[in-house]
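Complex 152.
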Amino acid sequence: MTQAAANRHVVIVGASLAGTRTAQGLRALGHAGDITLIGAGPELPYDRPPLSKALLQGEWSEAAAEGVRLISQAELDTLGVELRLGSAATGLDTAGQTVRLADGTTVPYDVLVIATGAVTVNWVRALTQARRRLAAGEPAAAIADAIRQLPA
Ligand SMILES: Cc1cc2nc3c(=O)[nH]c(=O)nc-3n(C[C@H](O)[C@H](O)[C@H](O)COP(=O)(O)OP(=O)(O)OC[C@H]3O[C@@H](n4cnc5c(N)ncnc54)[C@H](O)[C@@H]3O)c2cc1C
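Predicted structure with flavin-adenine dinucleotide bound:
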């Protein structure tokens, strides 16, 4: 990493697995510039897979919740990563190199990492339900509208 690159302000949108590991990885590689990690949710980053496993096995507890944190506030402090929780990124100005947040503030960046994950759509289930509703006599237009409103 060149000196100039190492001093850039990296803004990471999405404080989950990809975003957290990016911040940790940058520090491990010697990035010395500011790092800001922006999360829409209110909590410290946590690992999703154990949630469903523990819940299904009836082993969920507050203590278990703390065990799935991807990073602690102490580690964030040690790494010098600023975590901004509870305010989703709502706009991006690539010319001005700023991210706008839901709370009305803007965050300038030199390098932007978008780590907001993905939402899966179960099209098979949606289409199966649509077929059932058509068979039950519901108007096709209403069903098509419902499908259009599914997340892209
Ligand atoms: C219950 C559950 C069980 C799972 N089990 C498994 C498993 O067994 N095996 C497996 O391989 N995978 C599993 N997964 C999937 C795995 O958790 C994901 O692959 C992983 O979390 C992806 O990480 P990510 O950081 O890319 O995205 P995500 O974890 O989806 O995180 C994206 C983050 O971005 C934030 N965000 C989104 N939009 C904005 C915005 N505009 N501004 C600011 N922040 C934003 C979100 O709040 C979220 O915190 C499971 C997921 C869940 C939910």
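The chain has two domains: 3-114, 120-152.
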